[in-house]
Amino acid sequence: MGCNEVEDDLCAAGEKPFHKIMLKEFLIDKYEVSMRDYQKCVEDGACAHHWNDETCHIWNGKWGKGVLPQKYRDASKPVMCVDWSQAGKYCKWAGKRLPTEAEWEKSARGNNAFKYAWGNKPEPGCGHAVMASEKGAGCGAFSTSPIGTKPYGMSPYGVMDLAGNAWEWVSDWFDEKYYNDSPEENPAGPVTGERRVVRGGGWIDRSLMEFRASRRLGINPADSGNDIGFRCAADK
């Protein structure tokens, strides 16, 4: 876990040191939670939404006085503009939970601690991830893409979209220095904090920095950005 400086020259301070951990077996969703999935939770009364602008891809909604273009209402795209609390409520409703940061990273890197979900090479591009390119955000679509449409970006465990499309909430509080003394078995993050961890990079990111499997950012858990989604996990 953490940035392997032998393979990666973009290591940030919060990704060090590179260290070995042991995790108990777990299950993780193959795909990010889609708008269709999340809408079922909203209709069941267990989830809420805060979708209030065009870039949040409102489910069958409206923006201003007009109906949103269809590309912003595609139910197979990852749900966006859901804060950390609502992501957790969805996972609980689904009989699951948010993954820990360590579980997310293990799912992306396999047994070989790959730099990217698909390996140490090639560098990220639109063949592997939904990202900003010379054509524009979302590989020129100016939107996310339906989940699972980048098979070349699949992780060693068959998990999709762990790089690009949506940053993903995990359960941990963020601490840049946490890796210095995190436990060797089943690390679950600091006990308290001000920010929660997101992983994976999003459709509006261009920098190669953001799509590395060791990349970690801390975000206010009340934020619900138009590039943040999530997936769920469960104990096995």
Provide the low-confidence segments as ranges.
Answer: 58-68
Radius of gyration: 17 Å
Number of self-contained structural domains: 1
Q: What do the pLDDT scores average to?
A: 90
Helix-strand string: EHEEHHEEEEE
> What's the CATH first level?
Alpha Beta
Task: Give the CATH superfamily.
Answer: paralog of FGE (formylglycine-generating enzyme)
**Which geometry do the CA atoms define?**
globular
Most strands sheet = 4 strands, mixed
Question: Key features?
Answer:
236 residues, little secondary structure, paralog of FGE (formylglycine-generating enzyme), globular
Give an overview in words.
With 236 residues, the chain is mostly loops. The strands form three sheets. It has a four-stranded mixed β-sheet with strand order 6-5-4-7. The chain has a two-stranded antiparallel ribbon with strand order 1-8. The chain contains three helices and eight strands; from the N terminus they run E-H-E-E-H-H-E-E-E-E-E. It starts with 25 loop residues before the first strand and ends with a strand. The protein has a single domain, classed as paralog of FGE (formylglycine-generating enzyme). It has helices spanning 35-43, 84-93, 101-109; strands at residues 26-28, 62-63, 66-67, 167-173, 196-199, 217-219, 228-230, 233-235.
